[in-house]
Each structure stands twice: as structure tokens, then as C-alpha cells.
Amino acid sequence: MSHVPINLYTPKNPYYDMPDASPGINPPAIYVNSLGRFYTDRYNWNSVGGFSAGSFGARSLILLHELAHIVSPPGFIGSDADTPGASEKNTQMVIDHCLHAILEVIDARKQ
Fold first, then answer.
1. Domain assignment of residue 98, yes or no
2. pLDDT tens for residues 94-105?
3. How far apart are CA 56 and CA 96, in angstroms?
């Protein structure tokens, strides 16, 4: 992850259910939408995997989801933007494999 740049972008035509981030494959990078749920914004306040928009948990899930697009773990749907339910399935896979670690970091940050 430390070798994958994280870049910020602002969409020209924002809309309610726009992507929070997207992967760049060649070269590998993660592009975070400045108006998405990575930050608390006025376009979409829905939670990310049960975490409030803009929270550490939501940010972690978003970044891990995009990183999975880059590393292509088994069972992860490569291009999930145009397939209904695919992004949610991918996010659930990240939750299934990474939630414990995310919660441990959240707990450690409280101390």
C-alpha cells in the first residue's frame, strides 16, 4: 500500500451515488473523490460497510477496496462499476477479510 499513490480529484459533474474512489492500474494508484464518502460531503451521507461517511473505518474500507482492484485477490470482481451489486459484493469481501484489523486500529487510536 505504501507504494501506491493516493490522489485526490474533484468530479466536474457530481451526483448523489458517484464513486468514492477508483483504481488506476497502470501505473497503480488510487484516486479519491473529494466529494465522495471518503470525506463528509453533501452528496452522499450513506455509511460505508456500517461506518459513517468520512470516518476512519469508511476511509479504510474505501482504500482497501480500491487496493484490491489493483492486486486482484481471488474472488474479487475486477471491474465492478457497471455491474449492479458488484461493488457491494467486493466491499463485503474486504469487510470479511479486513474488518478485524480495521477495528483493532480504531480501538488503538482511542487509547
1. yes
2. 999 999 999 999
3. 17
Residue 1 domain-assigned? Answer: no
For residue 11, which of 32, 40, 27 has the smallest C-alpha distance?
32
Using a cut of 0.70, tell me whether the model's pTM lies above it. yes
Split into its structural domains, the chain has a count of 1
SS3 for 15-78 is CCCCCCEEEECCCCEEEEECCCCCCCCCCCCCCECCECCCCHHHHHHHHHHHHHHHHCCCCCCC
Question: Is position 20 within any domain?
Answer: yes
Cell of 3: 507504494
Please, which residues have CB within 8 angstroms of residue 90's CB and are 6 or more apart in sequence?
Answer: 65, 68, 69, 76, 77, 80
* Residue ranges making up the domain that contains 27: 6-110
Strand partners, 48: 51
Q: How confident is the model at residue 41 (pLDDT cuts 50, 70, 90)?
A: low
